Amino acid sequence: MIKIDTVPLGPLGTNAYLLSNPDTKKGIIIDPGMNPQPLIKKIASLDIEAILLTHAHFDHIGGVDEIRKLKKCPVYIHDLEADWLTNPKKNGSARWPELGADIVTDPAEFALDEGQVLEFLGIQLKVFHTPGHSPGSVSFLYDKHLFGGDVLFRLSVGRTDLPGGDTNTLLDSIQDKLFLLNDDVIVYPGHGVRTTIGFERDNNPYV
């Protein structure tokens, strides 16, 4: 049985997600954000197999290097944002210095791509390339659980006014990929509360 914990981190309340198997004491992390101490406490007794990034904006990657060095685990990101990890101008941390220092991490070990299937913890996660909020945004689907980063929120969508963002591309990603999923798929967003594909398809005013 896979346990899913939501850990809001940093000044923007970015949701980090910890998927773990209590029996094997193994886990994976999706988007370890800034000020990751609460997440680090949660993983103290776990063997972390990987860090998966939905995208490389600073508030989603702030804890990458600290956790990677602590747990000796690889990082996965889409190639379109591979160089954002090493560039504070691209990841946005240089744009808002009042929120913290420039964020620079080592490069990711592995690339993500559309249709890829990852296997961790005895489960599979399917990768969807869902650009629009950022060029390399991806979403991860495990069973009926979708980890979508900043693409789709409850009654809202991701902002597209940052470098590399595009509103039409974002709406295409939602309509042509995410909204093809079943109604009961739970959406775990990068910020805020969970929702479902069916609820958003019927009620989201932006799509």
SSE ordering = EEEHEHHEHEEEEEEEHEEH
Low-confidence stretches: none
**What strand line-up does the widest sheet have?**
1-2-3-4-5-6
Termini separation comes to 34 Å
Structural class: alpha/beta
The top level CATH class name: Alpha Beta
Shape-level CATH architecture: 4-Layer Sandwich
CATH fold call: Metallo-beta-lactamase, Chain A
Q: Biggest sheet: strands, sense, closure? A: 6 strands, mixed
Average pLDDT number: 97
Number of strands: 14
Beta-strand proportion: 25-35%
Number of domains: 1
User: In DSSP terms, counting alpha (H) and pi (I) runs of 4 or more, how many helices?
Assistant: 6
* Fraction of helical residues: 10-25%
Short description:
The model has no long low-confidence stretch (mean pLDDT 97). 19% of the residues lie in helices and 31% in strands.
How does this structure look, described?
The protein is an alpha/beta fold and 207 residues long. It has a single domain (3-203), classed as Ribonuclease Z/Hydroxyacylglutathione hydrolase-like (Metallo-beta-lactamase, Chain A, 4-Layer Sandwich), CATH 3.60.15.10. It is built from six helices and 14 strands. Helix 1 links the parallel strand 3 (26-30) and strand 4 (47-52). The model has no long low-confidence stretch (mean pLDDT 97). It catalyses: 3',5'-cyclic UMP + H2O = UMP + H(+); 3',5'-cyclic CMP + H2O = CMP + H(+).
